[in-house]
């Protein structure tokens, strides 16, 4: 028992201490000195957010900035980076072939307010984080209350309750129309339109068969799985015909079961895309887990501090 | 079938879609003078054409609603004697060169708002998103919106009550919008149907009326309960 706990703590340490080496370049439009300043080299925590690095970056470029008010934002090869997505997730999603260090560009002017939500620094990040945490708490507990005042024992209970209900998941799906053998050959993400954001809890039941990552993906992206595979295995352990037989003790989960039954039925009506559509890559905390891995392991070890499991997926779609 | 008194105040995505379509139809039939709500289908993945997926997602949309009210104070300052001469006295004043003129010319600028009702998979309830802008397209900030829709302001909606406003990315349009937080929605929806002493309705009836009832509560916050009230106020 102690060994298992120790292993879990190791895995969590790995997640919490994971970092991405960044090489941050000042955008040429804001360089006022010759020679231009060298890029800032920063080790960014995976679980952190880019605006929190500003106190390290600003002094580095202070002497070369044009006068005026700073509105700081980051960009990777022309794509403005969404500051409310954890740094590690941005890296896993946008850098198909991991680039080390990751070369990104910082801007101090010209905030793209039509694309990015305004960011007033640390407060905005804190607010966004707390909102996500409340959302996760609602998914796990059924209410938003007392999230900030949870004791250690409450938090442990939170972990245990997760596996018999809903799991907070944020899925980022990058759709590619080209086939590829090598990750290096993939074209760049040049617009957030190419990435669909699925903010939907995964619903699981602790029943018999182990619920794997594969099961979770079928739950989240049923359109990428053929009818055969859906009818063979039960979706989240519940078959449509069984829904009628389940006694209505716990009503809210009963509704969940009914929904899943409904969903399973609707999925069999073939919203399946085509046989040439397939999931090519799944990344969580920089790891590409095997599909057979128990989903509970991922939930117990790879959650972000906001209690969400952030999953980056790359799919190939028919033209 | 589940008993309505055990109902937790939430709906499934499918019930939301069905309810939204019937809500849009009912609205059009009851309020034919006003711009109707419309259902906007959206593909789950923006890079996939929607006809490829049978299961359609989407949201309810009501756009270009004028939320400006003529400011009583401005009118009193402008008019010399007869309130009926408001319009003309404004244009006369524009010839004067002083600060007051600059303020007055601004009061002709109209503000508009778009409203979207989107399903939340987290909270399993509808959520109201809104976006306000000037006639030239410039987006309004929250404090400007609060002036036009005072019920939205943080003073009127303390966090401990059932709703507050945050700025977030629209789930489908991926642009910054304002969202009326849905944290307490399931609770007040439950109260709405089960609060009274009268006989409790069947669950099917509840689900059919869900969106209409949700809207009657939430719409008030943004002055949408009766649209004509908002346009013709004062």
TrEMBL record, chain A:
Residues covered by the Autophagy protein ATG5 UblB domain: 166-313
UniProt keyword list: Autophagy, Cytoplasm, Isopeptide bond, Transport, Ubl conjugation
A GO molecular function held by the record: Atg8-family ligase activity
Protein's GO biological process: autophagy of mitochondrion; cellular response to nitrogen starvation; piecemeal microautophagy of the nucleus
Domain Autophagy protein ATG5 UblA: 15-108
Alphabetical list of Pfam families matching this protein: ATG5_UblA, ATG5_UblB
InterPro entries assigned: Atg5, Atg5_HR, ATG5_UblA, Atg5_UblA_dom_sf, ATG5_UblB
Gene3D superfamilies: 3.10.20.620, Autophagy protein Apg5, helix rich domain (1.10.246.190), Phosphatidylinositol 3-kinase Catalytic Subunit, Chain A, domain 1 (3.10.20.90)
Recorded superkingdom: Eukaryota
This protein's record includes keyword Repressor: no
GO CC terms: Atg12-Atg5-Atg16 complex; autophagosome; mitochondria-associated endoplasmic reticulum membrane contact site; phagophore; phagophore assembly site membrane
Chief place of localization: cytoplasm
Subcellular localization: Cytoplasm
Function, as annotated: Required for autophagy.
Assembly and interaction partners: Conjugated with ATG12.
UniProt record similarity statement: Belongs to the ATG5 family.
Listed name of the protein: Autophagy protein 5
Taxon lineage: Eukaryota, Viridiplantae, Streptophyta, Embryophyta, Tracheophyta
TrEMBL record, chain B:
Family: Belongs to the ATG10 family.
Native source organism of the sequence: Herrania umbratica
A GO CC annotation given for this chain: cytosol
GO biological process: autophagosome assembly; autophagy of mitochondrion; protein modification by small protein conjugation
Residue ranges of the region described as Disordered: 71-95
Family annotation (PANTHER family): UBIQUITIN-LIKE-CONJUGATING ENZYME ATG10
GO MF: Atg12 conjugating enzyme activity
Compositional bias of kind Acidic residues: 83-95
Lineage: Eukaryota, Viridiplantae, Streptophyta, Embryophyta, Tracheophyta
Gene3D superfamilies with a match to the protein in the record: 3.30.1460.50
TM segment ranges: none
Name listed for the protein in its UniProt record: Ubiquitin-like-conjugating enzyme ATG10
């Amino acid at each position: 028992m102690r060994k298992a706990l120790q292993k879990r703590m190791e895995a969590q340490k790995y997640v919490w201490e994971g970092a991405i080496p960044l090489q941050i370049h000042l955008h040429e439009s804001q360089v006022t000195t010759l020679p231009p300043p060298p890029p800032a080299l920063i080790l960014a925590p995976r679980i952190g957010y880019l605006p929190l690095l500003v106190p390290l970056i600003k002094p580095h470029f202070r002497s070369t900035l044009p006068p005026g008010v700073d509105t700081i934002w980051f960009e990777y090869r022309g794509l403005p980076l969404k500051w409310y997505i954890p740094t590690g997730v941005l890296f896993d999603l946008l850098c198909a072939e991991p680039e080390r260090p990751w070369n990104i560009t910082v801007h101090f002017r010209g905030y793209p307010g039509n694309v990015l939500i305004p960011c007033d620094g640390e407060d905005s990040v804190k607010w966004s984080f707390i909102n996500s945490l409340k959302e996760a708490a609602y998914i796990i507990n059924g209410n938003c209350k007392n999230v900030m005042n949870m004791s250690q024992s409450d938090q442990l209970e939170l972990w245990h309750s997760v596996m018999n209900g809903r799991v907070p998941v944020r899925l980022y799906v990058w759709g590619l129309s080209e086939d590829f053998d090598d990750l290096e050959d993939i074209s760049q993400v040049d617009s957030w339109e190419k990435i669909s954001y699925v903010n939907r809890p995964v619903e699981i039941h602790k029943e018999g068969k182990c619920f794997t990552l594969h099961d979770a993906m079928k739950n989240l992206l049923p359109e990428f799985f053929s009818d055969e595979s859906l009818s063979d295995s039960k979706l989240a352990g519940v078959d449509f015909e069984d829904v009628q037989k389940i006694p209505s003790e716990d009503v809210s989960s009963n509704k969940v079961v009914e929904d899943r039954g409904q969903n399973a039925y609707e999925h069999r009506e073939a919203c399946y895309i085509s046989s040439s559509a397939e999931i090519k890559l799944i990344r969580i905390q920089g790891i590409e887990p095997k599909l057979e891995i128990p989903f509970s392991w991922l939930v117990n070890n790879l959650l972000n501090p906001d209690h969400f499991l952030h999953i980056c997926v790359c799919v190939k779609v028919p033209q | 079938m589940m008993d309505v008194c055990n109902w937790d105040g939430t709906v499934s995505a499918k019930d939301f879609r069905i309810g939204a379509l019937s809500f849009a139809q009912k609205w059009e039939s009851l309020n034919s003078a006003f711009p109707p709500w419309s259902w906007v289908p959206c593909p789950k993945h923006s890079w996939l054409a929607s006809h490829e997926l049978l299961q359609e997602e989407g949201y309810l949309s009501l756009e270009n609603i004028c939320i400006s009210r003529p400011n009583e104070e401005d009118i009193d300052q402008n008019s010399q004697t007869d309130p009926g001469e408001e319009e003309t006295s404004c244009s006369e004043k524009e010839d004067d060169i002083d600060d007051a003129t600059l303020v007055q010319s601004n009061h002709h600028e109209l503000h508009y708002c778009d409203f979207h009702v989107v399903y939340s998979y987290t909270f399993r309830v509808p959520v109201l998103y809104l976006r306000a802008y000037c006639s030239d397209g410039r987006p309004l900030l929250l404090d400007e919106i609060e002036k036009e829709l005072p019920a939205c302001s943080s003073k009127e909606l303390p966090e401990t009550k059932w709703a507050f406003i945050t700025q977030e990315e629209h789930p489908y349009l991926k642009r910054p919008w304002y969202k009326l937080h849905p944290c307490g929605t399931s609770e007040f929806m439950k109260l709405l149907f089960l609060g009274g002493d009268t006989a409790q309705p069947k669950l099917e009836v509840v689900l059919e009326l869900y969106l209409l009832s949700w809207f009657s509560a939430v719409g008030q916050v943004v002055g949408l309960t009766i649209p004509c009230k908002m346009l013709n106020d004062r």
